[in-house]
Design brief:
There is one protein chain. By secondary structure, the chain is of the alpha/beta class. It is built from 10 helices and 15 strands. The longest helix is centred in the last third of the chain and has 17 residues. The protein is globular and about 55 Å long. The mean pLDDT is about 95.
């Protein structure tokens, strides 16, 4: 198992040696390594069992460090970064050639983000290089929002997990690129479309659901538990699957016909931020129960609810 601790110096030393360290962010835990070291980047793909066509997000401490990685920082991108960094926003920008092609899966853009987490920001400030970091889970499985989640699955493959507590946003970053200067959202995430539009006006949302080299975080099946999962109207689903060996994920209601330990409400108050924060940990908890299927319902399709529903659909996809 990996060591779990909050010693930045230990993380820094390992990263400087080219090793991987799991790092906390406000979205999910990341599996981090020197983004400019090709063999380290290759190791990230291997440890996660991630296909090399799925590009990584590069993490930086500031807008200034981000500018060093790209040829051009369009005006709208700058506006968004100034408003939302550090925060759950990833920008796709034309990359400088010294960033290994492997990190961007051969694309000429690089995904960059400044994470909103004190420990990781401090670590990034002390490093002479940016950190490539996809979510710290085996490819395709539920993303980790606590150090123990990382240890359960990747503990044998890495030495150190920097413990920054539970992730506060709990859902991956929103990915925004630019086509002819127009913002395009390729992945829904922890920053709502409404907030983005309040800064740059209307955006186009282009979410593909097949394997698409432009944004494979959009694979149809992703963020998925090992148990079978069905998404829909819970009353109908329970009629079909019964009340016995099922796990149930609701938005805010408690279902009297299901035992307490077999159901989780994402937010009994109906708070969308709380629901996002609890989503992945709740799926993990349900996945470990002695059940044969997870039944879930969508949340209201507004604000972060759009991103939550996106994750639920992919988690339930075959
Ligand atoms: P993860 O780090 O696991 O949250 O996944 C990162 C995701 O960012 C990928 O799956 C892609 O969807 C997206 N991404 C990263 N780099 C690029 C890029 N250059 N162009 C388009 N999408 C990207
Ligand atoms: Mg991921």
């Amino acid at each position: 198992m990996a060591e779990i601790g909050n010693n930045i110096a230990v993380a820094k030393q390992l990263l400087e040696q080219g090793a991987l360290v799991a790092i906390p962010t406000e979205t999910v835990y990341g599996l981090a390594g020197n983004a400019l070291n090709e063999s380290t980047v290759l190791e990230i793909f291997k440890v996660k069992n991630r296909p090399q066509f799925d590009p990584l997000i590069v993490h930086v401490a500031s807008l200034e460090s981000a500018k060093e990685l790209v040829d051009d920082f369009p005006e709208k991108a700058k506006k968004l970064a100034l408003q939302f960094w550090p925060g759950p926003l990833t920008l796709l920008l034309k990359k400088k050639s010294y960033i290994p092609d492997l990190a961007t899966s051969g694309l000429d853009t690089v995904a960059i983000r400044c994470p909103d987490h004190e420990l990781t920001l401090s670590l990034l400030q002390q490093l002479a290089f940016p950190l490539a970091a996809p979510s710290a889970n085996p490819f395709g499985y539920i993303s980790p929002t606590r150090p123990e989640h990382v240890n359960e699955q990747l503990g044998e493959k890495i030495k150190y997990i920097l413990d920054g507590g539970e992730c506060t946003v709990g859902i991956e970053s929103t990915i925004v690129g630019f086509e002819n200067d127009l913002p395009v959202v390729y992945r829904l995430g922890g920053l709502s479309i409404e907030k983005i539009e309040s800064v740059v006006g209307n955006v186009r949302v282009q979410l593909n659901t097949s394997s698409n080299p432009k944004a494979p975080g959009q694979l149809k099946s992703h963020y998925a538990p090992k148990k079978k999962m069905r998404l829909g109207n819970l009353t109908e689903l329970i009629r079909d699957y019964g009340t016995g060996r099922v796990g149930v994920l609701t938005f805010k209601t408690h279902l009297s016909q299901i035992s307490d330990r077999n159901q989780i409400a994402l937010s009994s108050k109906g708070n969308m931020e709380e629901a996002a924060q609890k989503l992945f940990a709740s799926l993990r908890t349900l996945d470990k129960l002695d059940i044969h299927i997870i039944l879930a319902e969508e949340v209201p399709d507004m604000g972060l609810g759009k991103a939550i529903n996106d994750r639920l659909r992919r988690a339930a996809a075959d």
